[in-house]
Amino acid sequence: MSTVDESGVSRRMWVRFETYHAVTYFTPESRAATDALGCRGGWMGYFGMRAAPLGTASAATITSAFYGFHPRMVRRAIPDAWQIAEPARYLETRLSGVDAGLRTLLGPETLSGKEVAEAADLAVEAAELAPTAGRPMATANRAVPWPEAAHLRLWQASTVLRESRGDGHLAALIAAELAPCETLVLFGAERGLAPDYLRAARGWPEDEWSEASDRLTRRGLLNADGTATTAGIALRHWVEERTDGAAAGPWRALGTRATERLAELLTPIARRIADGNDAMARNPMALDSRAELAG
User: Is 198 helix (H, G, I), strand (E, B) or coil?
Assistant: First the structure.
């Protein structure tokens, strides 16, 4: 595959496995599972479940690994989450929440079907080919034992792939010299997301958001009215191109035929999830899976 082709394939596959992975945090079933564990609010459950593969990581480590969240938002959940349960319990909880969410969204007949089993085998192969060097979230999730059920193996493979892609995305942001809040400000300006929505989603106060905007304006990346300049748009595109390129390895190694087959298998599954999960229509990633997978 050429570089252009690889980037297109990377993004196409991301839409599909990200949609499958997102049931981890943003379904009623997932929230019910963390509430039953004793978490105080959805964000404590989110940080506990997503960070659990890292062990009892500190708030500072999680803030660094997750990048976009304000440190105070993480500290409201960590280390208290580890007083409620050990990371192993969070791993069990997230798997039970995923299982319940997928059963609601797809139904047991689909989950036990041969298409999901085939998709799981291909996705696991791709996940085992995903790069982990310098990618702590991918490495930690790949060390988690594979579940037995095919639909859960497909979920865990999707999780490894999305965290590997995410680790590569952070490397691109660092290379672009975009600090966490600056990243969100420029992303929102380029994608047309409301600043209040992004600030609330990631816990940034108005003064720090304004300071980040000022820094981007001085760099020539934002206009005075808060819209992205031509240079800002170009930098955003550069970040996405680097992210897609850094995520191409598994698909290059898996091969064109197997990658296309996995996309074919995942498309109707992801489409059904997107139609039933409102989080895939409005989210801080600006990923509209319903639109992306329509047709």
Answer: helix
Count of the separate structural domains present in the chain: 1
Instruction: Report how far residue 132's alpha carbon sits from residue 155's, in angstroms, rounded to the nearest whole number.
Output: 18
CB 40 within 8 A of CB 48: no
Q: Does a structural domain hold residue 112?
A: yes
The tens digit of pLDDT for each residue in 54-68 reads 999 999 999 999 999
Tokens standing for residue 65: 């690994």
| First CA to last CA distance, the chain | 25
pLDDT tens-digit readout, 225-240: 999 999 999 999 999 9
User: What's the rounded Cα separation, in Å, for the pair 193 and 180?
Assistant: 16
Rounded-to-integer distance, Cα 160 and Cα 45, Å: 19
Cα–Cα distance for residue pair 90/95, rounded to 1 Å: 8
Give me the residues paired with residue 222 across strands: 228
Regions of the chain short of the pLDDT cut 50: 1-4
- For 40, the 3-state DSSP assignment is coil
Q: What is the pLDDT of residue 295?
A: 62
On whether residue 37 sits in a domain, the answer given is yes
Q: What is the predicted pLDDT for the residue at 1?
A: 47
Q: Can you read off the two tokens belonging to residue 161?
A: 């792939």
Q: Look at residue 50 and tell me if it is in a domain.
A: yes
Structure tokens that stand for 106 in this block: 């797809």
pLDDT of residue 277: 84
Identify the domain containing residue 163 by its residue range.
3-174+241-292
Residue 177: CB atoms within 10 A of its CB come to 9
By CB atoms closer than 10 A (0-12, 13-18, 19+), residue 52 is: buried
* pTM score: 0.95
Q: Is residue 224 part of a domain?
A: no
Beta bridge partners of 153: none
